[in-house]
Amino acid sequence: MRKYEEFTGNKFPEAIRDKFIPMVNMMRDAYRQAERVPGVVLGQEIAGEAMRITAKVAGKVLNGILNKAMGAGR
Fold it and tell me: Does the pTM exceed 0.70?
């Protein structure tokens, strides 16, 4: 809730505040339980590394396309 208020500059809606906190706690607890399943942490690490590599390659490709486009306009 603090991050919501920090980023938006708005007060967190009172109408959902009492339901929001237990829901976040439930999601946190479920995530912690899932981490205990064999292979989940390794799978997360592999997926994270794949995303980092994909983002790096995509950035290089996009940079090359933009450089060609900018060079064509000269």
Answer: no
Residue 38, φ and ψ in degrees, nearest 5: -55, 130
Residues in the chain: 74
- Alpha carbons within 13 angstroms on the beta-carbon side of residue 56 total 6
Digit-coded pLDDT (tens) for 42-52: 998 999 999 99
Cα 4 to its chain centre, rounded Å, is 15
Q: How far apart are the C-alpha atoms of 35 and 41, rounded to whole Å?
A: 6
Alpha carbon distances (Å) from 50 to 35, 37, 42, 47? 19, 21, 12, 5
DSSP label at residue 12 = P
C-alpha 46/C-alpha 30 separation (Å) is: 21
The encoded tokens of residue 26 equal 């439930």
DSSP 11: P
